[in-house]
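Dear support,

We are seeing what looks like truncated structure output for some complexes. This example has two components. We would appreciate it if you could run it in full and send us the complete token output so we can diff it against ours.
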Amino acid sequence: EAGVTQSPTHLIKTRGQQATLRCSPISGHTSVYWYQQALGLGLQFLLWYDEGEERNRGNFPPRFSGRQFPNYSSELNVNALELEDSALYLCASSLALGGKEKLFFGSGTQLSVL
Amino acid sequence: GENVEQHPSTLSVQEGDSAVIKCTYSDSASNYFPWYKQELGKRPQLIIDIRSNVGEKKDQRIAVTLNKTAKHFSLHITETQPEDSAVYFCAAKDGGSQGNLIFGKGTKLSVKP
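Here is the complete output from our reference environment:
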């Protein structure tokens, strides 16, 4: 069974540009979560999508947005990039029924803003 | 919303010793508390979890305890081994959202042979 996959692995952008990160959940998982992992700050919750709807978002500015497609894959968009957006962005998915809390993480996208 | 505090941020122990990592949470409605382990360069993986109707749970060398009254929970690793070296994250399920996990800032555990 394929795990959670994320692309690209690395992304280099300059300040002010836009970045798009992609995530494919494990087959059968309908919930997708996005977390930002910056050095020393742990895993900060960004967004949660379930069945195509945004269910919750963390304390991030509106320039962080995303969507979930009918096949449950997801996209995270970061507009007007700032230097402090440099971080590892992790996507996770969970089951639709029972055991919903267990998260399966992808390997992440390392975003560098120059 | 939920807030999770975790300490210590770094912990160094000798192989064979025990390690304890502690977390506190703010939302009394939270009912699910997992621990994730992230080895260097790898993705976080669930190692153990506990629900609010249970006070303690064990799985071989690891155990988690929960004190709902004090709103804190702890991870205990006994007979530590070098392969236990990693960053450990505690988390609490946001009681208000019923869905997403809020993580602590992590503890970097180093086990010296």
